[in-house]
Design goal:
Distance between the termini: 9 Å
CATH superfamily: Ribosomal protein S10
Oligomer: single chain
Low-confidence stretches: none
CATH class: Alpha Beta
Order of helices and strands: EHEEHE
Structural class: alpha+beta
Strand order of the largest sheet: 2-3-1-4
Shape: globular
Number of helices: 2
CATH topology: Alpha-Beta Plaits
Number of domains: 1
Strand content: 35-45%
Helix content: 25-40%
Amino acid sequence: MQTVKYEFRREENHAQIFNGNRASTDAMGVIVNWADPDKGRSREVHMDKDSLVIASLTFDDGDTDAEIDLVSRCNKVHIMCIEKSRS
């Protein structure tokens, strides 16, 4: 299992203009939809503010699509996911 702590924020050039949602609304949507117990994916949210979400995401070592899927979901709603730590 891998656990990666991420910081999620709106891409700067899309701040406040993308879809009317707060960055945290879109980030939480990404996190909730990414986390899938059937794939061995889980989440723990540490901070949820209007413009910032910090969460630890856990996934199986064999889940080679986990991070690609996360980045793809973030890109669709112009959210940056910045890796802060990995264990």
